Amino acid sequence: MIELALGSVVSLWLLFGLMTGITLGVIVLLAVLFSRDLKRGVTTMVSETLAPGLGSKTDVFLSNLEKELKRRGLIPRVPLDKGADLIYRDFFNEVKISVAQDGTGLRFGYRISAATSAVVLGVVLLIPFVVGSAVLFALAILRRDNLKLTLDEAGRVADVLTRGDNLKPELHD
Questions:
Q1: Is 108 a domain residue?
Q2: Domain assignment of residue 37, yes or no
Q3: Which of 7, 43, 105, 127 has the fewest CB atoms within 10 Å around its CB?
Q4: How many domains are there within the chain?
Q5: pTM of the entire predicted model
Q6: pLDDT profile of the chain (173 residues), mean per 10
Q7: 85, 96 in Cβ contact below 8 A?
Q8: Which residues pair with 110 in a beta bridge?
C-alpha cells in the first residue's frame, strides 16, 4: 500500500515538473510566434494617454519627458528610425516612446517589448529545463520499476526460503 502511495506521489511530482516545462516552452514559443513586434522582441505592453490642450506643445512635452526620465535613471536616446520620438533599451526591455499632436490634445504613447537577447536567453535556459525534466522523469520511472522488480523478486525468494525451512527435517546432533 505504501508503494502505491509513494510511487504515485513521486511520479505525479515528476510528471508535474515535466508538464510545467513543456507548458512554459509552449507559452514562450507562442508569444514569440504571435508577437506583433518580432524584430524588436516580444511586445509586452502598449499604452497611450491623451493630454487635452497640449497639442501645440509637443517639443516642450518631449523635452520635459526626457528630463524626467533622466532624473529617474532612465536615459532615453533619439532613435535612428522615425518610428518613435525616444527610445530606451536595457538588457530585458526596449521602450519606444512617441508624442504626437492629436487635434488640440497631445497623445503620449509607449510600447514596451522584451529585448531579443532576453527572449533568446529565456529560451536557451528553458530548453535544458524541459530536457532535464524529461530525463529526470524517465530515470525516476526506470529506477522505480527496477526497485519494484527487485523487491518483488526478493519477496518471492524469501517466501520460497521460508517455506523450504519448514519442510526440512530438523537435524539434531
A1: yes
A2: no
A3: 127
A4: 2
A5: 0.56
A6: 53 71 74 60 78 86 87 82 82 85 88 78 77 78 83 85 67 51
A7: no
A8: 47, 97
- Decide which of 98, 114, 130 is a domain's last residue: 114
Q: Do 125 and 110 fall within a single domain? A: no
Phi and psi dihedrals of 98, rounded to 5? -130, 145
Say if residue 93 is in the same domain as residue 135. no
Q: Give residue 41's pLDDT.
A: 59
Grid cell locating 49: 494617454
Q: Which residue has the cell 516580444?
A: 42
In sequence order, the 6+-apart residues with CB closer than 8 A to the CB of 117 are 91
Q: What are phi and psi of 88, to 5 degrees?
A: -130, 135
Scan for cell 525534466, then name that residue: 133
Domain co-membership, 86 together with 63: yes
Chain position carrying cell 520635459: 64
Residues in a beta bridge with 109: 48, 98
Grid cell 502598449 is found at 46
